[in-house]
Write a structure and sequence with these properties.
Elements lengths: L1 H9 L3 H33 L4 H49 L3 H7 L1 H26 L1 H16 L1 H4 L2 H42 L1 H6 L3 H53 L5 H43 L20 E8 L9 E8 L15 H7 L8 E6 L2 E2 L5 H6 L1 E2 L10 E2 H5 L8 H10 L3 H5 L8 E2 L8 H15 L3 E2 L1
Parallel strand pairs: 5-8
Antiparallel strand pairs: 1-2, 1-3, 3-4, 6-7
Helix pairs in contact: 1-3, 2-3, 2-6, 2-11, 3-5, 5-8, 5-11, 6-11, 8-10, 8-11, 10-11, 15-17
């Protein structure tokens, strides 16, 4: 799934990725060349006392270092630019997918999980992309190149690689076997923590009214502790793995100096070649360390990508008509004919054989006891959910044959649970009509009987609205929601 996500959302940035790879190649090859230059400087300059040669090779090394610096700066800039743009596009893709979901898919995933997938999960994939562009692609080039250069420098000492590298490979493999399942579990537990937190913040008044503060604190602590224990399992593995890898790295360096010193003492190897070989060994093991770091990040990013792709691959149960039709005339008549609706997995339909006609200029009230399906019935009109039997007609044409956007543009919705957006009162009212004048806004407020309390506010229409309208009472939020629907001036109010 990680490859699929990267392939889909990286395609617009192929040119920049190609430049990054070219810069990585330049950086890696130049890095491989420096130890050889250093060996040449020691063997033919320092050892022979040739100051001119030292200046010559030193100048070349300085130019190579400047080239590495320039490539590194440009590489970091382009990698950041690509990864940030990738993250932006991926978040936009997930958001667009969620916007198209019906109530069924929204309930299937849950709001806390969808928020986590569009924030934390996207961030994990984005971070792996950035690290991959700056490190992972360069590690194989540096690692393989260093092995070749080490063999060219001294074949006997290269035998040490046959011991160090396989040991590190086994450690990485054992690490991945343990870490991958833990990362998947950790993401699920983050979702659970977000769910509990969202419930407690949203239901704080109910919690206090029923004196359940201690109970909810214990529930949150239990969920947080569960996540902590899973995270500790990951960190314990890291805590053991990194010191072991550093031990192998240091022992390899000691072994090179020990055996290399003997070769230098016997005259089989120049001192400059020993310093070059030591540098190549360090580059090889550094490449392995980079691979280890990426191997720790990739499993978590893969789990996140799987969760993201699940959202992207989930089709909405309410699908817009591929060939929408327009009603022959705008009659304004809404008709239900033998409508049935059954929730997925339910034994019995919540609505059955519902038939009625609502004419323009009239108020049609749906009355029933709690749980009788009033809200479900109303959700069928704007196609938030689709009927499982019968049909709903608007202007004499079945709503499933009409464009969703056309249906929504004809409807002014006042939700059962009033919701206001953060901003100002005017901005909320103009959600129905972006070009509405102040006079139209005041007229809508008058009809909704909201004029009195709005006029008491110091900034009138420009008064601030907190997220969700929490700085207004429930009744005030409801009246502002009614005014917003009136500003839209639709043909049908729900």
């Amino acid at each position: 799934m990680l490859i699929k996500v990267l392939k889909t959302y990286l395609s617009p940035y192929r040119k920049n990725v190609a430049i990054v790879m070219a810069l990585l190649l330049i950086q890696s090859i130049t890095n491989l060349y420096l130890p050889t230059l250093n060996a040449d400087l020691i063997n033919n300059g320092v050892a022979k006392g040739d100051v001119g040669y030292i200046w010559k090779i030193g100048a070349i090394m300085l130019a190579a270092s400047a080239l590495i610096l320039g490539a590194s700066v440009l590489l970091a800039y382009l990698s950041s630019k690509v990864s940030m743009a990738f993250g932006r596009d991926l978040r936009g893709g997930v958001f667009s997918a969620v916007e198209g979901f019906s109530a069924r898919e929204l309930n299937q995933f849950g709001a806390p999980s969808l928020i986590t997938r569009n924030t934390n999960d996207v961030q994990q994939v984005q971070m792996v992309l950035f690290m991959g562009l700056t490190m992972m692609l360069g590690a194989p080039i540096t690692g393989i190149g260093s092995v070749i250069m080490a063999l060219r420098t001294n074949v006997k000492l290269s035998g040490l690689l046959l011991i160090a590298v396989p040991i590190m490979g086994v450690l990485i493999w054992s690490l991945l076997r343990r870490i991958v399942p833990l990362f998947r579990v950790m993401q699920i537990k983050i979702d659970r923590l977000n769910l509990v937190l969202r419930e407690q913040i949203g239901g704080v008044r109910v919690i206090r009214a029923f004196v359940k503060t201690r109970f909810e604190e214990a529930r949150f602590a239990e969920t947080s502790e569960d996540l902590m224990q899973t995270t500790l399992g990951v960190t314990r593995t890291f805590a053991v793995m990194f010191p072991v890898l550093m031990l192998i790295l240091n022992l390899s360096s000691v072994a090179v100096i020990w055996f290399g010193g003997k070769l230098v003492d016997s005259g089989e190897m120049p001192i400059g070649n020993l310093t070059a070989f030591l540098a190549y060994i360090m580059q090889i093991l550094s490449s392995v360390m980079m691979a280890v770091m990426m191997s720790l990040m990739i499993p978590r990013a893969a789990a996140s990508a799987e969760r993201i792709q699940e959202v992207l691959d989930t089709p909405s149960s309410v699908i817009d008509s591929p060939n929408p039709k327009s009603p022959a005339g705008r009659t304004g008549i809404l008709e239900f004919k033998d409508v049935e609706f059954r929730y997925p997995g339910a034994e019995h339909p919540v609505l059955s054989e519902i038939s009625f006609t609502a004419h323009p200029g009239q108020v049609t009230a749906i009355v029933g006891s709690t749980g009788s399906g009033k809200s479900t019935l109303l959700n069928l009109i704007p196609r938030f959910i689709d009927v499982t039997g019968g049909a709903v007609y608007l202007d004499g044409l079945e709503v499933q044959e009409q464009s969703l956007e056309a249906i929504w543009s004809d409807i002014g919705l006042v939700p059962q649970r009033s919701f206001l957006f953060g901003g100002t009162i005017a901005e909320n009212l103009r959600y129905g009509d972006a070009h509405a004048t102040d006079e139209q806004l005041w007229a809508a407020l008058e009809i909704a009987q909201a004029t009195d309390f709005v006029k008491e506010l110091p900034d009138l229409l420009e008064s601030r609205v907190a997220q969700g309208g929490t700085n207004f009472s429930g009744g005030q939020r409801q009246r502002l929601s009614i005014a917003r629907a009136i500003v839209k001036n639709p043909r049908l109010y729900i």
